[in-house]
């Protein structure tokens, strides 16, 4: 297996040129900061922005709330359906991203010069399960009369969180191990996201929905175990060589 980590011409550390360290340090001392003050100024500015800011987005009113009756919506009445819809929308977006992450990982593993225990068949299974989970959440959203095409605030925030993961997976220079580390982050969040959604569904009285979500969680558990194991094996091989 090709190593993930290689020795090379990395010039980011000061030890590359010990003779210049003193000069570099003295330059830092004589060069004034571009603006006066300390970290309190940035905190103050952020506070001002926070005080003025509107919410990051809103949850659209479900069609059923506008007049149509549904058994599901009756159960949600008196609670906070918008909070539940927000989290459903968040899971929907994450599962869609999950499909794209696995697509990128499959391409990486198919082309990277390596031999490992990673099974492309298993990766394809995981990818298809993420897609099934996406469809499951889409149907759940529709069942309560909400719109799965609407981006909820939590979905928006999750999209921003996932940006780094997508970048790692699609960067042609990253290794399979780097991508597995990003996937491990994704699957840990994925796993917790499902647990949260199941808990919410139960508390909202949506037992059937919670049961369907339990099946997704069982599959997510398998994703997590495999990704964690493959990542660990690659790091050990790369570091200790066995
Ligand atoms: Fe997932
Ligand atoms: Fe997953």
UniProtKB/TrEMBL annotation:
Ferritin-like diiron domain mapped to chain residues: 170-242
Classification via Gene3D superfamilies: 1.20.1260.10
Name of the protein: Rubrerythrin
